[in-house]
Amino acid sequence: MSVFEHKSFDNHEKVLFANDEKTGLKAIIAVHSTANGPAIGGCRMWSYADSAEALTDVLRLSQGMSYKNIMADLPLGGGKSVIMKPAGEFDRTALFEAFGRAIDALGGLYYSAEDVGVSPADILNARRETPYVVGLPGGTGDPSPVTAKGVFLGIQVAAERALGKSDLSGVKIAVQGATGHVGAYLVDHLHKAGADLFLADINEPAVSELARRVGATLVDKDRIYDVEADIFAPCALGSVINENTIDRLKVKAVAGAANNQLATREMGAELQKRGILYAPDYVINAGGIINIMGDLDPKFDARWVEGKLKVLKSTLAEVMDRAESEGKPANVVADKIARERIAEAAEKKAKAA
Ligand code: NAD
């Protein structure tokens, strides 16, 4: 397994491999960049096939957090951690305490929070060993409503650009993962804005009830790509824009909450070729991380959060302007702007040192 030569290494500042024989902890903490502040990103626990798979996952996620945080203009860097879920029975409390000690060893370069497979209670256990955790119970709470608000603003921008519509009334929007934490709040915003909704979720009773409540059309989870809608909002899984789905899309824009919507970077160009506008996921789904800032300092209050969500809207407009004028896919332009901003922050930091 290569590390420095890994295709997703992307100049990471630090990668910590933490091994604790007593508790069975095998974790990787990746700090992509601290140029603009301490790295923040959640901890994911997953049954990885091997450490190579875990490393690939953490490096990609960590780079993504750097890009998301800098595009939201937060005083943060980007990082992420993964725990290789031990096979069989294990002491979860002891495991997360050991994980806390691993975070602590980085002395505040990296703050962790929950992600897939990790609960706020797990993070509380890590908290016994380190102050460098956020998203605890009693803190800023569920980030999903704020994420949904940001995605809603992103969809407004997409509708303006792709459809020439200054409001969403009558705009046909297909939401995948409609009853999820983010999806459900997003559906409420879209419904209030008068959108004509098409909803899909694997949770059939919940999505039927939601569709009935908001007067939406219920769509089979496997048919959501085929809907004759204006906008597709993926709010469930990653990699949903892929070679099997792209030719089924009838929409003019894709804008949703899910992380890593494009299966490959090239899918951005494929969307562009088909005249489908793409709102890069990490630009419009940053509401949750914006909200979590309140755990670091009370000055990042609800008013500050609202202001930041507006910045997110203007950042998306900047990405789309540049994509149009340079004739490049929006995801490629967003990555480029993120890298430019990180390089600028690194230069400033070096000058100040
Ligand atoms: P969630 O698990 O609450 O919601 C996902 C929803 O998708 C569930 O209702 C699930 O039933 C549904 N689903 C799963 N597979 C599906 C399929 N094949 N077809 C249709 N529906 C399916 O998760 P969430 O917190 O709402 O997050 C949704 C997405 O947004 C994830 O990709 C997540 O990484 C991303 N995201 C979330 C936040 C946040 O604040 N929660 C922030 C940034 C990004």
Automatic annotation (TrEMBL):
Keyword NAD: yes
Family label: Belongs to the Glu/Leu/Phe/Val dehydrogenases family.
Entries under SUPFAM superfamilies matching the protein: Aminoacid dehydrogenase-like, N-terminal domain, NAD(P)-binding Rossmann-fold domains
UniProt-listed InterPro entries: Aminoacid_DH-like_N_sf, Glu/Leu/Phe/Val/Trp_DH, Glu/Leu/Phe/Val/Trp_DH_C, Glu/Leu/Phe/Val/Trp_DH_dimer, Glu/Phe/Leu/Val/Trp_DH_bac/arc, NAD(P)-bd_dom_sf
Protein name, entry field: Glu/Leu/Phe/Val dehydrogenase
Domain (Glutamate/phenylalanine/leucine/valine/L-tryptophan dehydrogenase C-terminal): residue spans on this chain: 141-350
Catalytic-site annotation from UniProt: 80
One Pfam family linked to the record: ELFV_dehydrog
GO MF annotations, alphabetized: nucleotide binding; oxidoreductase activity, acting on the CH-NH2 group of donors, NAD or NADP as acceptor
Keyword annotations from UniProtKB, A to Z: NAD, Nucleotide-binding, Oxidoreductase
SMART domains to which the protein is assigned, alphabetical: ELFV_dehydrog
One Gene Ontology biological process: amino acid metabolic process
Binding site for NAD(+): 177-183
Natural source organism: Marinicauda algicola
